[in-house]
Design a protein that fits this description.
Elements: H1 3-15, H2 23-74, H3 79-135
Amino acid sequence: MNAPAYNDFFKMFSEFKPAAVDFNQFFTISRRNMEALTAANQVVVEGIQAVSRRQAEIARANFEHMMKSSRDAMSGGSPEASAAKQAEAAKRVFEKSFNNLREVFEMMTKSNLEAFDLLNKRIAESLEETSEAASSINPKKAKK
């Protein structure tokens, strides 16, 4: 390599100024992202706990209803009356089970949508913050 080209290369390299990057901005963005993820996870956990409690309540109520229906079916009366009571009880159990299933499904849907909304909002904010942080990187503002 000839000396003038060699000197030009080192002159150009010595004049290079790295961009001024505020890494604290990027750390703050990451921290906010983790906080949003934690909040969304908390919403999901609370939703699961609420559904579990409701399912336990439903199971207890179903057990009590089945015990009452069994006692009613066993208490005297004709076989036809007993069969009619059992058919009516089965119909009520089916309708109640369907309504309970709908309720539990709505609880989980609400919880999941709330978590999704938290994350979706944070993603939009994060993209905006990252774009602003990236646009603030300016080689002319580099520290000398």
